[in-house]
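Sanity check. The docking grid for fe (ii) ion depends on where the pocket ends up, so I'm generating a full predicted complex first rather than guessing from homology. Inputs follow.
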Amino acid sequence: MSGSDFDYPPAARDWLLRYGDKLPQFNPAFASLVGQVSWEHGDIQVLERVVAADPGSVVRLLRVANSPFFGLSKQVDTIQGALTVIGLAAARSMLIRGYLLDTFGAADDDVLANDFVMHCIVTGVAARLLAAEAGVAQDVALIAGILHDAGKLLMVIYARSLVERIYAGESTGDDDSFEDEIALFGFDHAELGACLLDHWALPEPMVQAVRRHHHRELCVTPLERTVFAANRVADHLIARRGAQDPATAQARLDELAIDPARLAWLEERVDAELSLMFAMNRAGRPGG
Ligand SMILES: [Fe+2]
Ligand SMILES: [Fe+2]
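Predicted complex below; grid placement will be based on this.
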């Protein structure tokens, strides 16, 4: 562990360290994608190089571009062609989706893992969009947002049956799960995810933002507040598409008092990512 002076509940850290060498490794390609590729300004050549360096990304990108979602009459067989079809922002999210699935050893058609991954990516994109006005570095907000529920993905790999018990009922969003997790594990996914980020030697402010993301009263730094808000915004945007209870998500969003015009602006910017991820997740469902 790093030299953090934060006291993790020993149970979460011990549970994590039990897995030793089998723990997921932080993927440097993920940081490279986040750091090198400008999010707003189309830089297709840079993204093309990042994709080309990872055979798994090439396969995934071509599969997505040729999926029924885009309804192409002719197969696309080049990276550039796939990026043009998908669009740069959605393509980056698809790549991050792939990195997360690979990092945590989840299959492309694992519905539960994909739902968690979609929520993570939307939280990351929302955190990045909220970062500027909060005075937070955009790439830091993006990474912290994407990884804020890393603990959930760990639980999916290492404690599948317990996680399925927790999420077997109708999901009403991220903030509902942690009390059930504490009852079953003795800790929640926020603490577990924070331990993993610390194990990966990611910066302490990011670790704290992950640990505190369910507790508004504990979120004091701009990064912690940004990730907290982004998590709720993500729940709301996903709930609007029918995957969660919209009333609960709306009530939690109201607590943030985000200006409706600002929310519409956020929604517009994650729309391409959300539409594509919903289509991909549905494709992984039995009969979907
Ligand atoms: Fe969470
Ligand atoms: Fe979350």
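Relevant for the grid: The CA atoms of residues 30 and 99 lie 7 Å apart.
Also worth noting: The mean pLDDT is 85.
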